[in-house]
Design a protein that fits this description.
The structure holds two protein chains of two kinds. By secondary structure, chain A is mostly helical. Helix content of chain A is 63%, strand content 0%. Classes of the chains: A mainly alpha, B mainly alpha. Chains A and B meet through helix 1 and helix 2 of A and helix 6, helix 9 and helix 10 of B.
């Protein structure tokens, strides 16, 4: 995914980033309960 | 696994603010980083005793490092060697006390409060052991050693929660590397993508797998009938292993991208672990920096003791025992309840079986023959499936009370 992203033109990368941001924010606003799984503490 | 954390929003803000601060104030980037690391450390404390313990836990190894290095020298007396070992034993015992292992009855007698728990305790320990053990070498090699650099190394907020585990030399060399390319627009987009892709893995993909794992675990808890319970348990284990992978690798993507924007390079911690065809290979692909750390600081000393003692003429047996001990300790480190002991036992057992099998096959087929055998497509698929199944079942003890479930079913 990361290699494919790097090969795209700038405008496509910006759209991709916006989509990712939108999905992450949507998940947060929908109340995702998952946080980082700590290994030990 | 933890009941306290830096708020997700605060952490996300830090991810974007730190690069700006460190790049704008380039001349003072070490001091800015120290300020941010100290702020995160202080904000995660729960009480004044935790502050005292935390400060001591971080500073004592720094000031003890020259003494410990002297004591490790061949010219040092026996008493110095004993005192050096005693220091490390004390450190590990105090670590175990702070972790408060539920299954160790001794810790139940001692007074304890959750308020003394420190975020990043075990990752502090990893770095402190690396720093004190390598101090002599670092001095000899002329690696820059200052208190602010040491503090930034130990407190590094990008990696304090769950790695990747850096070595002091690696961290300092990278931090002051002036030959690095200037940050370009393409690099910024790449790093932003890495951060957002990481968040996507944590908040969306791993969240879905977590829900499915939770659903199937509940079905196992309430279900009946051996075959249906086994099938449901395997589904739970499968989804849980995916949850762990996406959650942890997503976190690593976030911090690797964030640190790179701030001018620091973190080591890659994952290399498609579920493509591994054996447990040994899996641990070379999953949480790579931890595998390397336990190799250097648990496996190596254990095997050294074993082969210089009763396993002098039984190298392979010594190797197997050292592997078992290493993975058992690593498993116990992962958490404080008995499930993690079982997890460690399963990992240790799996690694030993995997090593025995490889050894047996090499003897039977020869090195070349074994390589040819392993390169067959069907063999690779079968070995990959077996590794995956074993890892999934052993990972089911991480985060879920599978021991309690087994007792309930019995």
């Amino acid at each position: 995914m990361i290699k494919l992203f790097d090969r795209l033109p700038v405008w496509a990368r910006l759209i991709w980033l916006s989509l990712e941001l939108a999905i992450v924010l949507f998940a947060i606003f929908m109340g995702t309960k998952t946080t980082i799984l700590y290994q030990g503490f | 696994m933890l009941n306290f954390s830096i708020s997700g929003l605060f952490f996300a803000v830090l991810m974007f603010i730190t690069p700006i601060l460190m790049r704008v104030g380039k001349r003072f980037r070490r001091e800015i980083f120290l300020l941010l690391n100290t702020a995160v450390f202080l904000l995660c404390l729960r009480s004044v005793p935790a502050l005292v313990i935390g400060v001591l836990w971080i500073l004592v190894p720094y000031f003890m490092a020259p003494v410990l290095t002297k004591a490790a020298d061949e010219s040092a007396g026996k008493l110095q060697h004993i005192l050096r070992n005693f220091f490390y034993v004390l450190m590990i015992l105090f670590f175990a006390y702070l972790m408060h292992y539920e299954w160790v009855p001794f810790f139940k007698i001692l007074p304890y409060s959750n308020a003394v728990k420190l975020l990043g305790l075990s990752y502090f320990l990893f770095r402190e052991i690396d720093f004190t053990m390598q101090y002599g070498y670092l001095k000899e090699s002329g690696v820059r050693i200052t208190l602010p650099d040491y503090l930034n190394y130990v407190l590094n907020f990008y990696t304090v929660m769950a790695g990747p585990i850096l070595r002091y030399e690696e961290y300092v060399t990278d931090f002051y590397d002036e030959s690095k390319e200037e940050l370009t627009g393409d690099m910024i987009l790449h790093d932003l993508h890495r951060i957002l892709f990481g968040y996507l893995k944590v908040y969306v993909v791993s969240a879905v797998f977590s829900t499915w794992a939770g659903y199937w675990f509940e079905r196992v808890s309430t279900g009946a009938g051996f075959f249906s319970i086994t099938a449901e348990f395997l589904l739970f284990a499968f989804f849980n292993s995916f949850f762990i992978y996406f959650n942890f690798s997503g976190y690593c993507d976030v911090v690797t991208g964030g640190a790179h924007l701030s001018g620091m390079t973190l080591r890659e911690n994952f290399n498609q672990p579920y493509l591994a065809v054996s447990l040994v290979e899996f641990w070379n692909r999953h949480h790579i920096t931890l595998s390397e750390w336990i190799r250097d600081y648990i496996y190596s000393p254990v095997i050294k003791v074993l082969i210089s003692g009763s396993f002098r003429k039984k190298l392979f047996e010594g190797q197997c025992i050292a592997l078992f001990i290493t993975f058992l300790v690593a498993g116990i480190w992962h958490g404080t309840n008995f499930n993690y002991v079982v997890y460690g036992l399963l990992q240790g057992l799996g690694i030993v079986i995997s090593t025995l099998r490889t050894n047996h096959m090499k003897k039977k087929l020869g090195k070349k023959g074994f390589k040819e055998f392993q390169s067959k497509k069907l063999v690779r698929i079968a070995e990959n499936a077996a590794t995956w199944a074993y890892i999934s079942v052993s990972f089911s003890f991480v985060g879920y009370d599978v021991c309690g479930l087994i007792l309930q079913k019995l």
